[in-house]
Design brief:
Pnp Oxidase, Chain A, alpha+beta, three-stranded antiparallel sheet, about 200 residues, 12 strands, globular
């Protein structure tokens, strides 16, 4: 299914071409065969992997049409991927209702959250609410994706490729612009709680 998205991107020209990306259909979320035993249970997996501390971001995208408002969700599975070309990646659940809207837009902005923005993260972690209500933002310089006010850093991207990874999608973005307007400490997430970074 990811090949469909890649073929579309190639058909419209360079990886930085503007335009929507076809959202993948929701599949049956099965990564092992019917006769296979899952090697670890979900609870154990979450418990052990929760020991890995990460930063927190909000991924945003403009509405694909004038009638459609902006989309966004809280995301901790974000990472830099490549310097040449400049690529970043994030992971999103294949059951996400926000991802199809980002895919239609074909672009996104990574908003890296600061230590004081835990409540902002919680607002974008809920489902079904107007996540942008009362949230100050401006259009990012290249794609027009919402750039949240007062974030320590932002990265403006076009969707470069989408790959499947079990019950998640691996989204690769080509960086078009970026900035770090403040020197605020980062918001960290560890074992279900927000925290701060303290230099040793």
């Amino acid at each position: 299914m990811a090949a469909t998205v890649v073929r579309y991107l190639r058909s419209v020209g360079s990886p930085t071409s503007a335009g929507p990306v076809e959202a993948l259909p929701r599949p049956e979320l099965r990564a092992v065969g019917e006769d296979e035993r899952v090697p670890v249970g979900p609870a154990e997996f979450r418990s052990v992997l929760g020991n890995f501390a990460s930063g927190v971001t909000v991924i945003t995208a403009p509405g694909a049409t004038p009638e459609e408002g902006p989309a966004g969700f809280a995301c901790q599975s974000f990472a830099s991927l490549s310097l040449a070309p400049p690529l970043v990646t994030f992971m999103v659940a294949r059951t996400s209702t926000t991802w199809p809207r980002i895919a239609r837009a074909g672009v996104f902005c990574v908003n890296i959250l600061g230590a004081e923005q835990g409540e902002l993260c919680r607002a974008f972690a809920v489902s079904g609410a107007d996540k942008f209500a009362g949230v100050s933002h401006t259009p990012s310089p290249v794609t027009g994706s919402p750039q949240l006010t007062a974030v320590p850093a932002w990265i403006d991207c076009r969707i470069h490729a989408v790959h499947t990874g079990g019950d998640h999608l691996i989204v690769v973005g080509r960086v078009e612009a970026l900035g770090a307007p403040t020197e605020a400490a980062p918001l960290l997430y560890h074992r279900g709680h927000f925290g701060r970074f303290s230099p040793s």
